[in-house]
Design goal:
The chain has 7 helices and no strands. It is mainly alpha-helical and 212 residues long. The chain has one domain. It is elongated and about 60 Å long. About 3% of the residues have low confidence.
Length: 212
């Protein structure tokens, strides 16, 4: 076999491998999705901060001390967390859809479906775990639980998308583990850093790496 034929065969194999990798992975996530999610996360953390400050002030003044008052605070923070998640998700979908539309690629394919399933399983388990913590009044572990299970979701889903997302997941898990051993008063700051700052940094890196 001539040298030219060998090189041609190797090039063909590389092209086939590249095509198989593209079909097996959802490679069209938008960096703007991360920037959007991080920005929304920071805004949500800011709103929660003022709600908690108001509650603490009422505690100092002796206005709120019963379990009913804690449940009322929960009813304020839980819908806020859900709203932030939905807005972040919708924005992320929009930016990714726009990127795929420009590239002429379908956003719903076998790779994206596998990615969602693999993301969803740890995420759903984490949601149940966090709701159980809230129900039992174990607020000090809520922030860490959110970060750890979200990070595990990203790591599990990274098998079907860009590998960069795995490193974001690892950072979220590490941050959540740190939160288990520090004062509960820092929980919101860790939440803001994990879901806000890290997402923005990740989004910028993704944008510069894949979209510039």
């Amino acid at each position: 076999m001539s040298e030219h034929t060998t090189e041609s065969s190797l090039e063909t194999l590389k092209e086939i491998r590249s095509m198989m990798e593209r079909s097996a992975r959802f490679l069209s996530l938008s960096g703007w999705s991360g920037i959007w999610a991080g920005s929304v996360g920071l805004i949500g953390a800011g709103i929660a901060y003022f709600q908690l400050k108001e509650y603490e002030q009422n505690l100092i003044e002796g206005h709120q001390r019963s379990r009913n008052d804690i449940q009322a605070l929960t009813l304020e923070l839980l819908p806020l967390a859900i709203i932030v998640f939905v807005i972040a998700l919708l924005g992320g979908y929009y930016f990714t859809y726009r990127k795929n539309k420009k590239a002429g690629v379908s956003i719903w394919n076998s790779a994206s479906k596998k990615m969602i399933v693999n993301l969803g399983i740890p995420f759903a388990a984490g949601a149940v775990f966090v709701l159980a913590l809230i129900n039992n009044g174990d607020w000090q572990y809520v922030s860490s639980g959110c970060l750890i299970f979200y990070g595990l979701s990203l790591i599990n889903g990274s098998k079907y998308t860009v590998s960069d997302i795995k490193y974001l997941g690892l950072l979220e898990v590490v941050l959540g583990c740190i939160g288990l051993f520090i004062s509960p008063g820092y929980g919101l700051y860790l939440w803001a850093f994990g879901f806000g700052v890290l997402h923005i940094v990740y989004g910028i890196i993704m944008w510069r790496k894949y979209e510039l």
